[in-house]
Design goal:
about 100 residues, Arc Repressor Mutant, subunit A, 4 helices, about 10% strand
Length: about 100
């Protein structure tokens, strides 16, 4: 039986997928990675870019009482700017 090759996502689609995962309430990097179907290195590049552009806020939990998992030192949350990006691109996709 022949296997059907899945279409690869564009960088923009991947970027929006990561934003949507974070918007959905997932904040730990490894959870974001699995939900967005990415490997670690591309995810870290994307998250770094998103933080630099102001789409995502990085929260350092290494010295706070909020930390539950000793392995997780950073959490991510979407900003209003990031939510506007998701709204714009997903809204544009549904109009075609």
């Amino acid at each position: 039986m022949a296997r059907v090759k899945a279409r690869s996502r564009s960088k923009l689609e991947t970027f929006i997928d990561v934003l949507e995962v974070i918007k959905g309430g997932i904040s730990k990097p490894t959870r974001i990675m699995s939900q967005a179907r990415l490997s670690w290195q591309p995810l870290t590049r994307i998250l770094s870019s998103m933080v630099n552009q102001g789409f995502v806020r990085e929260i350092d939990v290494s010295g706070t009482g909020r930390k539950r998992d000793k392995r997780t030192t950073k959490l991510y949350e979407i900003t209003m700017k990031g939510e506007e990006v998701v709204k714009h691109f997903r809204g544009a996709g549904s109009q075609t």
